[in-house]
Write a structure and sequence with these properties.
The complex is a heterodimer of chains A (363) and B (224). With 363 residues, chain A is of the alpha/beta class. Chain A contains 11 helices and 14 strands. Chain B folds into 2 domains: 68 residues, Helicase, Ruva Protein, domain 3, CATH 1.10.8.420; 147 residues, Dna Topoisomerase Vi A Subunit, Chain: A, domain 2 (3-Layer(aba) Sandwich), CATH 3.40.1360.10. In chain B, 42% of the residues lie in helices and 9% in strands. The chains are: A alpha/beta (363), B alpha/beta (224).
Chain lengths: 363, 224
Amino acid sequence: MSELWLSRLELTGFRSHERAEFEFVSKFNGLVGDNGLGKTNVLEAIHYLSMGKPYFGGNDRQSVREGGDFFLIKALFSRLGRDEDLELAYAPAERKQMKRNGKPLDRLADHLGVFPAVVIAPRDQELVDGPAEERRRFADQVISQSDRTYLNALTRYQQLLKQRNALLRSAQGRDPGEQLAFFDFGLAQAAEELIPLRARFCDELRPWLEAFIDRIGGGEQASMVYQPDVEGSITEVLERNRAQDVRMGYTRRGLHKDEFEWSLDGRVLRHFGSQGQQKSFLLALKLAQYALLRSKLELTPLLLLDDLFDKLDARRAGRLIELLRTEEYGQVFVTDTHPDRISALFEGMGEEARIHRLTPTPA
Amino acid sequence: MNNTRPHFAPLLRSNFAHLEYASRILEQAVEALGRLPGIGRKTALRLALHLVRSKPEYNHQLVEALVKLTDEIKRCRVCHNLSDTDVCAICTQPKRDTHLLCVVEDIRDVLAIEATGQFNGRYHVLGGLISPMDGIGPAELEIDSLLARLEPEAIRELIFALGATVEGDSTAFYLFRKLPPGIEIRVTAISRGIGVGDPLEFADELSLGRSIVHRIPYENTLQR
């Protein structure tokens, strides 16, 4: 029995679902159906409950069903042996509101890491191909779920950066003088807290990443190196770049330009990896994320596998499912368009697995 | 929900952009009410219809209050709080410690601190916080007037009672740096930490961390 699992999910006006209800089992849940029936949207709803925001793209407003004016996600979880109700409601004119056991949560930040989830999806490819921002967001999300100090400092850094940039923009090429002093001081102070935590995150994730690459195959040695944009004093760098920042109207250097360089067999993945290698790396990375969160939170996160066969052929998918069957993993959700493929994967599991068929809503 | 709601339901469902209220007067009222913060067109219509049904004397009282609010309310010449007179009731109170000056964002903070009954000095209302994102810089705030008060009023302690946000912190930092060099004045900030009645386990790390760093002698916790 998993320590954390979702037993009931009710969607109202959420993305393609006008109304939908699901009863899940505590281990493997297959979501099957043709494209466009909203399989991924079910995973999206689960991610919303975990992180308070979408994973697969768009924003809150775009998650409201076309023509509707709100969405509601209701769920019943079992967490460390206790039943827990979660509810998330959103209407464009109002604030997003999450309730845990009927009690509204004041700050979504306090909710992070309480109902953890890890997503493995085709769009992960952006973590390799995309700009450094994607990799920073990945790191920020993982660290934030297990370290409130990091989340607080990061939120502060981002707010300070927005204010500093607004100040630079509004100054229109003139030096804003005294007013910059606080933002420079604050950014440096927050960065001082954040940089060591980003470095530590890499050090903690690396052994897991290496272990999973070894297990999955696709490469000999994977690594992840943190490259802070500024090494040493941020205050000095801000001072040195001041004239240029003023001219450009934004803050050019700092924590918001950090890079996480991923490589396989000593070669930078973004430039050299083949499609297959990149997919193996991403799978190993996500499993490493899962393992790290599990050890930090002492709770098995939900694992949301969108379009599993995008990354794996049938044989390797089978091996992955075997791995996920072990005690170290909790509840798993898998989407696929082919009912047969999923049935084959879940063969012989009995009560442990259930297949949920999504059908078109009658007009 | 009041029982008049179903009656208006067809109205509410229609597209307001092209709505004819059949009364130009009603339309003007809805438009005026709809300009208030947090009031959408639906609420504005509900309020307007409520006013139509109200006793005329209530509405006349409301009108009178609004006119007075518009034409007669002043800002205190000394502290810039809202006031009926040139100098507000707090600034003219004889028993206040005039050497103690508390800097706040707006009138709501004055009311909040007054409600504690723990402060006997005077105030200075900045009228906002520095926030470049919202186009608010030092020039938009009552900062020069604050600095101009320090020497004539022989202020001995300046208390920053600003929100624990990036904007509150940046405003305090700016003020601190703007103090005339060599001025003899104690500058303090309200303490941050655990709320009264909050168990430690639910406190956020930042506040709890601050409480540890800025811990106080135990005897002080016995005072009110």
